[in-house]
Design a protein that fits this description.
By secondary structure, the chain is α/β, with parallel strands linked by helices. Helix content is about 35%, strand content about 20%.
Length: about 475
């Protein structure tokens, strides 16, 4: 349990924007117990923060094992390359990793994510079984490796047990290369229940359906039945690729979000639609009416050539939005927000697409940050997030000496933070009332990097191009 803490920031981001002289009190339970503004000087026993403070963000979509091949798929040996070719390389990576390597990879990743401004990760976890497809003695062995990485780093986790049973809409089984991913509805539900029952510190349990192509309608209906009274998040990859949408129309007679909304029980606030790149205006309205959230992963969507979402439509519909780093080609939310906006600018040949001046929101960075701050809480299964009483005591301290911020007026700090790059990593990071990064250092960083390099050497040796 964290010790209670009293912190004072000369400037901090509260709902609505920057506030001056902010006092933050964290209780021993790791939650904010009191937040006050307008204090021109810190109380005698308060710790004065070294720079402006912002709440940490939820990374709402992570596949930790994919950190092991970030940077290793950026060559093309054939006439064309696309998502489906990248997926085959993903499978070759997934078939190599053992639990100890998973923990080493995730530990390195979670430190990087924390230093990039994330304080919570939603792991869309489907790498379950032994490389030959048989079950570990404890079927949750790989999940526990992720939980152990969180314990090592101070990151907190929503572990999403995933339904994954077939390799395509017209197929009934997995491909040989997908053998480690196997879990039907009852198995996914059982894994979720076991994670919840363990009560591991900093770990929450959630559910996922890999995609409509990877789960039959009957199995999705079964998971809905099992989860009727489940109050946690339910994530699903949906409409990421146009080919996937075409296959869904052919097999199910409806587009992906349209089909999900039409099923008994429909969509609701628990559901998180990951990517939804090729959603139509009608599907966006269906999502908005249901309360479901959208999880965008701009750097991965760009890296894979997925396409661009209709961001203005999603924003206008007031759908909860969160961000994730997915395949971890980048590991900073500042970069994700930059990619999110810049993709829209290129497609529309205009600037500040994410801003809404007629709604009193002229800052693109502020509007996007506020939306993903709120949306990330729902994606992780939290009712509260940010600097408010009852929310988890997570905090980022900005390094005001960062060259990209020199001379920037206080009122424009968030704009420069997102759109002036490169920027220095966060000076200090607190998670649940405990400092995990201080003065740019994480205590486990050096050991984690050494173990990560060892794991990478075991996986790839001298020939990473083989993936």
């Amino acid at each position: 349990m964290a010790a209670s803490a009293l912190l004072w920031a000369s400037q901090a981001w509260l709902p609505g924007g920057w506030q001056q002289g902010v006092l933050l009190e964290a209780g021993a339970d790791g939650l904010w117990s009191h937040v006050a503004t307008g204090l021109s000087a810190p109380p005698e026993r308060a710790q004065r923060l070294a720079g402006p403070a912002l709440p940490g963000l939820v990374n709402a979509h992570s596949h930790a094992f994919q950190r092991a091949f970030a940077g290793l798929t950026e060559r093309r040996e054939r006439d064309t390359d696309d998502f489906w070719g990248w997926r085959e390389r993903l499978y070759r990576t997934a078939l190599r990793i053992e639990p100890a390597q998973m923990q080493a990879i995730a530990t390195q990743l979670y430190i990087e994510l924390m230093r990039g401004g994330y304080t919570h990760v939603c792991e869309f976890h489907y790498l379950q079984h032994r490389p030959d497809g048989s079950t570990y003695q404890d079927p949750r062995e790989m999940g526990w490796a992720l939980a152990a990485a969180c314990a090592e780093t101070g990151m907190q986790l929503t572990l999403l047990s995933t339904l994954y049973e077939r390799s395509g809409f017209e197929l009934t089984a997995l491909a040989p290369a997908q053998r480690r991913f196997r879990a039907d509805a009852d198995q996914a539900w059982a894994m979720q229940a076991a994670i919840a029952a363990r009560h591991a510190a900093g770990v929450r349990a959630g559910l996922a359906i890999h995609s409509l192509r990877a789960a039959s309608p009957a199995s999705i209906a079964r998971l809905r039945e099992l989860a009727e009274h489940f109050d946690g998040p339910i994530h699903i990859h949906v409409a990421e690729q146009s080919r996937e949408v075409d296959q869904c129309l052919s097999a199910l007679g409806a587009r992906p979000i349209e089909w999900l909304a039409s099923q008994p029980g429909g969509l609701d606030r628990r559901w998180q639609l990951v990517h939804a790149t090729h959603a139509t205006p009608a599907e966006i309205e269906l999502a908005a009416a249901s309360g479901a959230g959208l999880v965008l992963c701009p750097s991965t969507e760009a890296n894979l050539g997925d396409g661009l979402p209709d961001l203005p439509a999603w924003l206008a519909a007031d759908v909860p939005i969160s961000i994730g780093s997915d395949s971890h080609v980048t590991r900073s939310w500042r970069e994700e927000l930059r990619w999110l906006e810049y993709g829209q600018r290129l497609a529309r040949q205009a600037r500040n697409i994410g801003a809404a001046p007629l709604q009193g929101q002229p800052s693109t960075a502020a509007r996007l940050y506020e939306r993903v701050l709120r949306g990330g809480a729902a994606a992780a299964g939290y009712a509260r997030w940010g600097f408010e009483a009852g929310a988890r005591a997570d905090l980022l301290v900005l390094d005001r000496s960062d060259a990209s911020l020199l001379g920037i007026p206080d009122s424009h700090l968030l704009d420069a933070l997102v759109f002036s790059s490169p920027g220095r990593l966060w000076r200090d990071v607190m998670v649940a009332g405990r400092w995990q990064v201080q003065d740019h250092e994480h205590p486990a960083e050096a050991a984690a990097a050494e173990r990560f390099e060892q794991a990478m050497a075991q996986l790839w040796g001298e020939a990473p191009a083989s993936i």
